[in-house]
Amino acid sequence: MTNVIETNKLTRKFNGFTAVDSVNLQIKEGELFGLLGPNGAGKTTTLSMLSTILKPTSGTAEVNGFDVDTQQDEVRNSIGIVFQDPSLDDELTAYENLDFHGMIYGMPADERKQRIKEVIELVDLSEKINMQVKKFSGGMKRRLEIARGLIHHPKVLFLDEPTLGLDPQTRRNIWDHIIEMNKSEKVTVVLTTHYMEEADSLCERVAVIDHGKIIALDTPEKLKHSIGGDIISLEADPGLLPHLKKIKNIKKIKNMNGEMNISAEDAEHVIPIIFDIAQKNKLEIHSISLRHPTLEDVFLQLTGKSIREEKAGVLDRFRTRIRSRNR
Amino acid sequence: MNKQISGIYILWKREVIRFFRAKSRVIGTLGMPFFFLLILGSGFGPAYQAQSGGGNYMDLLTPGIIGMVLLFSSIFSGIRVLMDREFGFLKEIMVAPISRTSIMLGITLGGMTTSTIQAILFLGVSLLVGVHLNLYGLPAALLFMFLISASFVALGIAIASKMEDMHGFQLITNFLIMPLFLLSGALFPLENLGAWQFITFLDPLTYGVDGLRVTLTNAPGMPLWLDFTVLAGFCVVCILTGAFLFSQRE
């Protein structure tokens, strides 16, 4: 598979502050790729550079073989973008918003008409097509924006925090639509998110970004695997400890007053073994629980902090308020 | 090239759709000029008649109010770019593969159209209340309307490109729009200003109002070629400035 996006030491500074720091990325054709990181990590700035909204301070990036700095129009023609904040004209109907997009991208009339029908069906909004967008719910607006981003047959679709501010049910619905259009349109999707579950259940590969640098890049499975498998919490007779150390799949044991935190691979099959040993040696088990690592654990291990710890600044809170007002 | 034109066209169309969508707005925009005409017209009418020796103040006022309608609605439709930024739609426009100049031209043409429609609607209303207008002068008056509105939409875009948000809006109304309006001779004959009259020649709207008054009421005024030349020059400067400042924004 060929790469549709390649960056080389892509960097952006704002008045001396480095928002994106020498980022090297290769994104393959047809991939559903995620940029995961806390607020202010540089996700949106990276996306803005790839979509020619911001110019890189240094380094290069190619999208569909076009340079984002010197071939802006070619890049813009070949990409679709869904911004973090809503960007529809509320006064216009869904159809008019889509038609506006098709025209400003220079599509001929009959192709435009046909394509609007296709994309509106893809996001299940056919029945609302002549409704003014100001009567739409937040989730419907998002879906319409995704449809709009697809009209001009882009090779890459950028989604900046596609489910920010939406309720869990709507979020899942948007995920389904993203997966579906990734498959049926064969479009490469690059999304940013600070939701762990979103990156995990949606993306084929995830780049974890913090302070403008990519600190890990792999499939969600492998990323989670990298921190040493599943976690078994065990409350039992301390006499069990020497026996546990002999089990092959157990990588690490942390013992705190009879409460053991065990890192193990293939933990589902380790638990019966632990019970067998306990029974044979007549040792008591008080409680046992199994937890699969999440990307949250990965982020915690890599940075020493939790993604959710990041306090929203005044500006972020204000943005959220504006956003909820507009939705 | 084709792409630029279809982009300009759809930007124009959006302005027109939005204008006609809100019926209340169409009526609302006619309210203020109508009250200006009726209240100022009847309040100052007798005094003007006495001073000018039998002149009809409503006839003098109407082209002035048309100028006012054009000035206000044009600058506001230029400044509405700020609203588009606030509500996110500007991003959708900015990432499209058309040039900034085309975007600016599309918005200008759209604002020009909606402002001129408002001016024509008001002109119709003024005929209904009995103002005497020379309708043969309408084609020439239309030309002046286009020039006035194009200039001030472009000026509005230029200002909006330099503003961060709507906070400076009051400032612009008070220190730009009102002086432009009051010094243009829209409300009274400029000779009345006496020694101050020279300032009015610095106001581009003076030439617009004069052009409208001469074409629509056959009133004596400056030569039309002068009105046209000054206004056309101002229009070109505004469009170039607007296009430049608008394309400067990242």
Automatic annotation (TrEMBL), chain A:
PROSITE patterns in the record: ABC_TRANSPORTER_1 (PS00211), ABC_TRANSPORTER_2 (PS50893)
Keywords, in A-Z order: ATP-binding, Cell membrane, Membrane, Nucleotide-binding, Translocase, Transport
Top-level lineage group: Archaea
GO biological process, one term: daunorubicin transport
Gene Ontology, cellular component aspect: plasma membrane
SUPFAM superfamilies to which the protein is assigned, alphabetical: P-loop containing nucleoside triphosphate hydrolases (SSF52540)
Bilayer topology: Peripheral membrane protein
Pfam families xrefs: ABC_tran, DrrA1-3_C
GO molecular function, one term: ATP hydrolysis activity
SMART domains given in the database record: AAA
Subcellular location: Cell membrane
Domain ABC transporter intervals: 5-236
Keyword set includes Cytoplasm: no
Similarity field: Belongs to the ABC transporter superfamily. Drug exporter-1 (DrugE1) (TC 3.A.1.105) family.
PANTHER family the record matches: ANTIBIOTIC RESISTANCE ABC TRANSPORTER ATP-BINDING PROTEIN, LINEARMYCIN RESISTANCE ATP-BINDING PROTEIN LNRL
Protein name: Efflux ABC transporter, ATP-binding protein
From TrEMBL, chain B:
PROSITE patterns: ABC_TM2 (PS51012)
Topology relative to the membrane: Multi-pass membrane protein
Residue span(s) of domain ABC transmembrane type-2: 24-249
GO molecular function: ABC-type transporter activity
InterPro entries: ABC2_TM, ABC2_TM_bact-type, ABC_2_transport, Nod_factor_ABC_transporter
Pfam family, one: ABC2_membrane
Subcellular location: Membrane
Major localization listed first in the record, in broad terms: membrane
Keywords: Membrane, Transmembrane, Transmembrane helix
Annotated TM spans: 26-48, 60-82, 103-129, 135-159, 171-190, 224-246
Domain of life: Archaea
GO annotation, cellular component aspect: ATP-binding cassette (ABC) transporter complex
Protein name: Efflux ABC transporter, permease protein
